[in-house]
TrEMBL record:
This is Bifunctional NAD(P)H-hydrate repair enzyme. K(+) binds at N60, D119, S155. The keyword Metal-binding applies. Residues 11-209 form the YjeF N-terminal domain. One of its GO terms (biological process) is metabolite repair. Residues 219-502 form the YjeF C-terminal domain. PANTHER family: ATP-DEPENDENT (S)-NAD(P)H-HYDRATE DEHYDRATASE, ATP-DEPENDENT (S)-NAD(P)H-HYDRATE DEHYDRATASE FAMILY MEMBER. Binds 1 potassium ion per subunit. Keywords: ATP-binding, Isomerase, Lyase, Metal-binding, Multifunctional enzyme, NAD, NADP, Nucleotide-binding, Potassium. Its EC number is 4.2.1.136, 5.1.99.6. Catalyzes the dehydration of the S-form of NAD(P)HX at the expense of ADP, which is converted to AMP. Together with NAD(P)HX epimerase, which catalyzes the epimerization of the S- and R-forms, the enzyme allows the repair of both epimers of NAD(P)HX, a damaged form of NAD(P)H that is a result of enzymatic or heat-dependent hydration. It catalyses: (6S)-NADHX + ADP = AMP + phosphate + NADH + H(+); (6R)-NADPHX = (6S)-NADPHX; (6S)-NADPHX + ADP = AMP + phosphate + NADPH + H(+); (6R)-NADHX = (6S)-NADHX.
C-alpha cells in the first residue's frame, strides 16, 4: 500500500525511525533521494545540454548536491547555484563535500534557453514565503520556459497544505520520496508539481505503518472490499431502498438525477418523494423510479414505517426554507426511540439542505450527534462549506484537509468538501484527497448525481466514509472517461463501465 499521505512532521519521523532502525543512515537516504531525481532528469531529458541545480541550505539542497554529482558524472554539463552553505556536519554538508563541482551564488543565477533546472531549494522545511534570490530564480526559469524538475516539492509549495507561499516553481515533474504529501494533491500545489514521481529510498512499509497516517490518496484499494456486490439471493429491497426528496414543480430535475444515480449505483429501489403540487411533473419523467407524495413530516414517517428506506438524499433543488430544516431534523431523528422500528442507515445532505442551516448550524450538528442518529454525509462545495462552517472556512493557515476534518468532527458527519481537489473526511479523523477529478465534472447537476451515488452505496450498507470516498472516485472516473460534452444527464449511464470494473475487481480484494 503506498497511497498514504504523510505530513512533513510524519515524513521527518519516518526519516528518524528508518535511520534509528538501520542500516541506512541519513546520508544514505539522501544519496538514494538524489539518485532517484538524477535518474528522472536523465530519463526525461536524455539529450540535456546543461542542467542548473539550485541548492538551498537544508536537506533539500543536500539532495541537490547528490543530483549534481551524478549528472556531472554522467557527462552532463552541470552548474550548481547555492543559496547559503549547508550547516556544518549536516547530511547536506556531507553531500556537498562529495560533490566535485564548485557552486556559484544563487544571487547571480542565470540560464540559457533550452537548459534544465533542478529545484532543490526548499522542500519539507519550507518555513516562509519565497523572496529575494529564490523568488528571482523562479522568475528566471518561468521567463525562459525552462523545464523544472523539483526535488520533493516545487519550492514555494507547502507540503502540508498545497498553498503557494509567495511564489513557487511550476515543475514539469516532481520527484518525492516514500509517500506523497498532501500538498502534492491539494490545489494549487497539485498544479505546480507536474508529473509526480514516487521514489523508494528505503523507508520501509513497516515504518510508515508505525506512523498510522490518517490521510490517503483516494483510490479503490481503500474501499473496494466494502463495495457492495449483490448476493445471489438478493431481492430488490435487500439491495437497499433510497428516498430522494424533490423540490417544487419547477425544481424537480435535480432529485430525478440524484434518484437515477442512486439506482445505477446498485440500490434495489428508489423513490422520489415529491410535494403534491409536483407529482404530475415528476410522474411524467419517471419509469422504474417510484414516486410518493410527501408534503410533511407525517408523510416521511409513514414512508419510513411502511417502505423501510435505508438512505435518503435531501437538498438538490429543494429550497432553503423552514421545510428543509424540518425535514432534515425529522430524518436525523429516524433512529430515535420512538421510531425504533424505522431504522435508516444513512442520509446525504447536499446543496439546499446545507444552506438551510446557515443561521443555526448547531441545531443540525446537535441532531447529528445524538445516539442512534442515522449516519450523515454532507457534500458542500466551497460556498456551502463557508455557510455552515464560517470560522473554519476563514482560517487562512489550515489546509483544505484540516478544514474538512475539523468540520467532520464538529458536525459528526462525513464531509465531502467538493472542488477540483475534493477532500473526504470522517469524524474520527480519517481523510482522503481525491485526485482523479476531471474538469468535465464542473457542470450543472453533477453534484446531484454525486449525492445519488453516495446514497445508493449507503443504502447497500457500505460504511459512510468508504461510501463517500467510493462515490467521489466513481463520479470522477465516469466524468473523465466520458470527457468533452459531458452533461449531468450523461453521468448515470456513464457510471456503468466504471461499476462493472469495480465489481469485477471486488472478489480479488483479500477479505479481512
Ligand atoms: N525526511 C526524509 O525522510 C528525507 C528528506 N530528504 C530531503 O530533505 C528535505 C527536507 O529537509 P529540511 O528539513 O532540511 O528542509 P528544507 O526543505 O531543506 O529547508 C530547510 C532550510 O531552508 C530554509 N528555508 C525554508 N524556507 C525558506 C524560505 N522561504 N526562504 C529562505 N529560507 C528558507 C530553512 O530556514 P529556517 O526555517 O531554519 O529559517 C532551512 O535552513 C526534504 O524535502 C527532502 O528533499 C531526503 O534527503 C531524503 C530523506
Ligand atoms: K524543491
Amino acid at each position: 500500500m503506498s497511497d498514504e499521505l504523510l505530513t512533513s512532521a510524519e515524513m521527518g519521523e519516518a526519516d528518524r525511525l528508518t535511520i534509528a532502525a538501520g542500516p541506512i543512515d541519513g546520508i544514505g537516504l539522501m544519496r538514494r533521494a538524489g539518485e532517484a531525481v538524477a535518474g528522472e532528469v536523465l530519463r526525461r531529458y536524455p539529450s540535456a545540454m546543461h542542467v542548473h541545480v539550485l541548492c538551498g541550505p537544508g536537506n533539500n539542497g543536500g539532495d541537490g548536491y547528490v543530483v549534481a554529482r551524478i549528472l556531472a558524472g554522467s557527462g552532463v554539463a552541470t552548474t550548481i547555484w547555492a543559496s547559503g552553505a549547508p550547516r556544518p556536519q549536516s547530511d547536506a554538508a556531507l553531500a556537498a563535500a562529495e560533490c566535485p563541482i564548485a557552486s556559484r551564488p544563487l544571487s547571480v543565477f542565470e540560464a540559457e534557453p533550452g537548459s534544465i533546472v533542478v529545484d532543490a531549494l526548499y522542500g519539507a522545511g519550507l518555513s516562509k514565503p519565497l523572496s529575494g534570490d529564490a523568488a528571482r530564480a523562479v522568475g528566471v526559469a518561468t521567463a525562459l520556459h525552462l523545464p523544472v524538475v523539483a526535488v520533493d516539492l516545487p519550492s514555494g509549495v507547502s507540503g502540508d497544505s498545497g498553498r503557494v507561499l509567495g511564489v513557487a516553481f511550476a515543475a514539469a515533474a516532481t520527484v518525492t520520496f516514500a509517500r506523497k504529501k498532501p500538498g502534492h494533491l491539494l490545489l494549487p500545489g497539485r498544479e505546480r508539481c507536474g508529473d509526480i514521481v514516487l521514489a523508494d529510498i528505503g523507508i520501509g512499509d513497516d515504518i510508515i505503518a508505525r506512523l498510522q497516517p490518517r490521510a490517503v490518496d483516494n483510490r479503490p484499494a481503500h474501499w473496494l472490499r466494502d463495495f457492495p456486490v449483490p448476493a445471489v439471493d438478493a431481492h430488490k429491497y435487500k439491495r437497499g431502498h433510497v428516498g430522494v426528496f424533490s423540490g417544487g414543480p419547477s425544481a424537480t430535475g435535480a432529485a430525478r438525477l440524484s434518484a437515477l444515480a442512486a439506482a445505477r449505483s446498485g440500490a434495489g429501489a428508489v423513490t422520489v418523494l415529491s410535494p403534491g403540487n409536483a407529482m404530475t411533473v415528476n410522474a411524467g419523467h419517471l419509469t422504474s423510479i417510484m414516486l410518493s407524495k410527501t408534503d410533511d413530516v407525517a408523510d416521511i414517517r409513514e414512508f419510513v414505517g411502511e417502505r423501510r428506506p435505508s438512505a435518503f438524499v435531501l437538498g438538490p433543488g429543494f429550497g432553503v426554507g423552514d421545510k428543509t430544516r424540518t425535514f432534515g431534523l425529522a430524518l436525523l431523528a429516524c433512529g430515535q426511540a420512538q421510531d425504533a422500528a424505522a431504522q435508516v442507515d444513512g442520509l446525504v445532505f447536499d446543496a439546499d439542505a446545507i444552506t438551510a442551516f446557515r443561521e443555526a448550524p448547531e441545531i443540525l450538528f446537535e441532531a447529528a450527534r445524538r445516539p442512534n442518529a442515522p449516519a450523515l454525509v454532507m457534500t458542500p462545495h466551497e460556498g456551502e462549506f463557508s455557510r455552515l462552517f464560517p470560522d473554519i472556512a476563514d482560517d487562512n493557515v489550515s489546509s483544505k484537509l484540516d478544514k474538512a476534518r475539523a468540520a467532520a468532527a464538529r458536525a459528526n458527519a462525513v464531509i465531502v468538501y467538493k472542488g477540483a481537489d475534493t477532500v473526504i473526511a470522517a469524524p474520527d479523523g480519517r481523510a482522503a484527497i481525491n485526485s482523479n477529478g476531471a474538469a468535465w465534472l464542473a457542470t450543472a447537476g453533477s453534484g446531484d448525481v454525486l449525492s445519488g451515488i453516495t446514497a445508493g452505496l449507503l443504502a447497500q450498507a457500505m460504511p459512510p466514509f468508504e461510501a463517500a470516498c467510493a462515490a467521489v472516485w466513481i463520479h470522477a472516473d465516469a466524468g473523465s472517461r466520458f470527457g468533452p460534452g459531458l452533461i449531468a444527464e450523461d453521468l448515470p449511464l456513464a457510471l456503468v463501465p466504471v461499476l462493472r470494473e469495480l465489481v469485477e475487481a471486488r472478489p480479488k480484494v483479500p477479505v479481512g
